Amino acid sequence: YRDLRVFDPSGESRLLVSLSQSGQRVPALVVDGGGGRYILIDGYRRVFALRKLGRDTVSAMVLSLPEPEALLFSYRMERSGRRSALEEGWLLKELASAHGMSREVLSRALLRSESWISRRLSLVTVLPPSVQESVRKGAIPPQAAMKYFVPLARANRAQCERLVENLSGERISVRGMEALYTAWRRGDEIVRERIVSLPLLYLSSCEEMKRTDPPVPDPPADALRRD
């Protein structure tokens, strides 16, 4: 279930430092997978960091629950606001498609309205898979995907996919994504094609436009009179 979460490089680095200094303080959550194996429900970042540190043991809590119930339990136990709406959509899609839970059942289990369930699921159906993969890898912030790439995908799915492809995996800020989407929305066909084809060049040109011109030095005579 690692693909249900977004990769966070800064969070991974902080966790790596914490584990190296203090060890693992919070157990991972697993369920019995049979045959002496376990299915990891929560704790992928901890397992990844421990492997990176060369550790061969992970402290884990075994939940006596079926997989879908364990996923819901893990979600309820998290701090408020920890997951993005897109990550919630991935979780709901997994519970609905892989575990056969209806929207009504999910609504009761999460104490959310069915319209909330539908909105989260629509995020992962509207966004093309390539865009979602970029979000998972951390190249696109989840909030940027929701605010700008969802409406872009609704308007022109093909150009949305091309734009992400031409970003070449570069990490772009939410502000940068806003600039791209705003320029695309306001532009004509030619401008939109240029933005989609060369998004990094457009962003770099915007940064150049913001720079102030260096001050012009005074002529030597003026400097002498001032002195």
What does this structure look like?
This protein has 227 residues and is mainly α. The chain is built from 13 helices and three strands. It has helices spanning 9-22, 44-52, 67-77, 85-97, 103-110, 114-126, 129-136, 142-155, 157-166, 174-186, 189-197, 199-210, 220-226; strands at residues 28-34, 37-42, 60-63. The chain has a three-stranded mixed β-sheet with strand order 2-1-3. Strand 1 and strand 2 form a beta hairpin. Helix 1 (9-22) crosses helix 2, helix 4 (85-97) crosses helix 6 (114-126) and helix 9 packs parallel to helix 11 (189-197). The longest helix has 14 residues, at 9-22. The radius of gyration is 24 Å and the shape is flat. The N and C termini lie far apart (71 Å). The model has no long low-confidence stretch (mean pLDDT 89).
Characterize the largest beta sheet: strand count, sense, and whether it forms a barrel.
3 strands, mixed
Taking the alpha carbons of the first and last residues, their distance comes to 71 Å
The outline comes out as flat
Strand order of the largest sheet: 2-1-3
Q: How many E-type strands?
A: 3
Overall average pLDDT: 89
Helicity range: 55-70%
Order of helices and strands: HEEHEHHHHHHHHHHH
Q: Which consecutive residue ranges, at least 5 long each, have pLDDT under 50?
A: none
Strand content: 5-15%
Class by SSE composition: mainly alpha
Taking Cα atoms only, what radius of gyration do you get, to the nearest Å? 24 Å
Task: Enumerate how many helices there are, as a single number.
Answer: 13
